[in-house]
C-alpha cells in the first residue's frame, strides 16, 4: 500500500505559516505539537482523502537539535527562500512496508537514508531520513513514512474545511519521478508531475466557501 500522506509547508516561524494559509484560504490551521529533539513544531489540518496539511517551522522553545531539522529546514538556501515567505518544501507518502519501498527508491537512484522513529506527544511513526537532512531533487521526490496500524492520523485531526484538489510537482526529473511512482504503485489523480527546468511544488485546495486556494506559488 502506498498513498499520499501529507504536504509539508515550511515557514520561518509557525505563526507566519499559519497567517500565510489564512490569507490564502480563510482557514486557520490549528497547532499540532512539537517534535522533541528535532527542533521543530507544527500546525495540522485534515484535507480529505486520507491526507493532511502540515505547516512546519523551527521551534524557538527547543535547543538546537543534534541532528538536522526535518525537510532541509537548516539549509542556507531554505532559510533564504523562507525570508520571502512560506513554501511547500516537500510531500510525503505513507507505506505499510517502509523498508520494501525504500529499496524501490534506491533502485531508482534516490537515497532516502535510514528509517528512524519520530514522535509528537504519544504518537510514534517511522520516517526515512538522510543523515544530512537533505531532500531528494529539492523536495520533488517524496519523503516516505510508515504509521502504526489503525485509523490514519488525519481522522483524529481538526477539519477546517480545506480539501486537497491538486498537487503539482515541477521538476527536471519528471520522467524519473513518474517511473518511481509506477514502481511504487502510486495512483492518485490529484498529483501531477510536470517537466520544468526550475523545481517548484504547488498545492491547490478547495476552501470552505467553494473557491480554490493555491499554496506554494
Can you walk through the features of this model?
The strands form 2 sheets. An 8-stranded mixed β-sheet has the order 2-3-4-1-5-8-7-6. Strands 10-9-11-12 form a 4-stranded mixed β-sheet. It has a single domain, classed as Roll (2,3-Dihydroxybiphenyl 1,2-Dioxygenase, domain 1), CATH 3.10.180. The chain has 217 residues and is an alpha+beta fold. It is built from 4 helices and 12 strands. It has helices at 14-25, 76-82, 98-107, 174-184; strands spanning 2-10, 31-35, 40-46, 52-58, 87-95, 114-120, 123-129, 143-146, 163-171, 191-195, 200-206, 212-215. Strand 2 and strand 3 (40-46) form a beta hairpin. The mean pLDDT is 93. It is globular, with a radius of gyration of 16 Å.
Tally of structural domains: 1
Count up the helices.
Answer: 4
Helix content: 10-25%
CATH-assigned fold name: 2,3-Dihydroxybiphenyl 1,2-Dioxygenase, domain 1
Q: On the 0-100 scale, what is the average pLDDT?
A: 93
Alpha-carbon distance between the two ends: 30 Å
Name the beta content range: 35-45%
What's the total number of strands? 12
General form: globular
Q: How do the strands line up in the largest sheet?
A: 2-3-4-1-5-8-7-6
Q: Radius of gyration from the CA trace?
A: 16 Å
* Strand/helix succession: EHEEEHEHEEEEHEEE
**Which CATH architecture would you pick?**
Roll
- The CATH class turns out to be Alpha Beta
**Protein structure class:** alpha+beta
How would a textbook summarize the main sheet?
A: 8 strands, mixed
CATH superfamily: 2,3-Dihydroxybiphenyl 1,2-Dioxygenase, domain 1
Amino acid at each position: 500500500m502506498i498513498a499520499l500522506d501529507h504536504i509539508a509547508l515550511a515557514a520561518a516561524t509557525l505563526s507566519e505559516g499559519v497567517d500565510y494559509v489564512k490569507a490564502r484560504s480563510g482557514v486557520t490551521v490549528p497547532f499540532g505539537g512539537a517534535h522533541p529533539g528535532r527542533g521543530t513544531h507544527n500546525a495540522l489540518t485534515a484535507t480529505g482523502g486520507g491526507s493532511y496539511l502540515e505547516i512546519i517551522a523551527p521551534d524557538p522553545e527547543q535547543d538546537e537539535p543534534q541532528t538536522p531539522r526535518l525537510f532541509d529546514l537548516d539549509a542556507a538556501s531554505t532559510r533564504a527562500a523562507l525570508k520571502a515567505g512560506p513554501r511547500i518544501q516537500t510531500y510525503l507518502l505513507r507505506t505499510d512496508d517502509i523498508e520494501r519501498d525504500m529499496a524501490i527508491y534506491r533502485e531508482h537512484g534516490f537515497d532516502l537514508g535510514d528509517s528512524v522513529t519520530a514522535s509528537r506527544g504519544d504518537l510514534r511513526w517511522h520516517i526515512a531520513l538522510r543523515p544530512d537532512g537533505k531532500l531528494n531533487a529539492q523536495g520533488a521526490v517524496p519523503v516516505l513514512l510508515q504509521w502504526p496500524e489503525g485509523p490514519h492520523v488525519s481522522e483524529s485531526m481538526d477539519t477546517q474545511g480545506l480539501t486537497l484538489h491538486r498537487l503539482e510537482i515541477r521538476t527536471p526529473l519528471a520522467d524519473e519521478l513518474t517511473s518511481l511512482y509506477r514502481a511504487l504503485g502510486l495512483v492518485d489523480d490529484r498529483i501531477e508531475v510536470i517537466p520544468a527546468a526550475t523545481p517548484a511544488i504547488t498545492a491547490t485546495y478547495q476552501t470552505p466557501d467553494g473557491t480554490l486556494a493555491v499554496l506554494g506559488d
